[in-house]
Amino acid sequence: MSSIMKKFFKKLWMRFSIRVSKKLSQEIETLDENERLSSAICRNLIKHPESTFLIAPLSHKRYIRNESLQMFIILQDDRMNITNHIYNYDILLRKDTSERLNRIFDHRVEESRSKFEAEMKSQVRHSLHIILKKII
Fold first, then answer.
1. Number of domains in the chain
2. What domain range is 59 assigned to?
3. What are the residue ranges in the chain where pLDDT is below 70?
4. What is the pTM of this model?
5. Domain-located, residue 39
6. 59 lies in some domain
7. 3-class secondary structure, 60
8. How far is it, in rounded angstroms, from Cα 97 to Cα 75?
9. What is the pLDDT of residue 2?
10. Contacts for 89-96 with beta carbons within 8 Å, 24 or more apart?
């Protein structure tokens, strides 16, 4: 019985080591110029203070709009659409690039949500103080 277990674990270990070596030996893909430039544009537009954000929960699209720069970006799965009144670019993104941009976008939206919620709660506390003063 122990020889069977030894063979099993030996085969399992070999399969594992072969898979790991194949993963490590693959060339690291480099970003092409369009993907690199478009992701930089998206990151900078997300950081821009005048940008507004929208998430469509059913279609999983993320929208970025900046009125002052007259730019719109739509992030969807592995695609990015950059639109202006003059041009429209549709760029394919690698999975890791798309996930990174979505994570940056989600983090920025979460920051905006927390500021909005804090402002909303601060107004409620202020209103309760006014109601208490009116009652007393």
1. 1
2. 31-135
3. 1, 23-31, 124-126
4. 0.68
5. yes
6. yes
7. coil
8. 11
9. 76
10. 89/34, 89/38, 91/34, 91/35, 91/38, 92/35, 93/35, 93/38, 93/39, 94/29, 94/31, 94/35
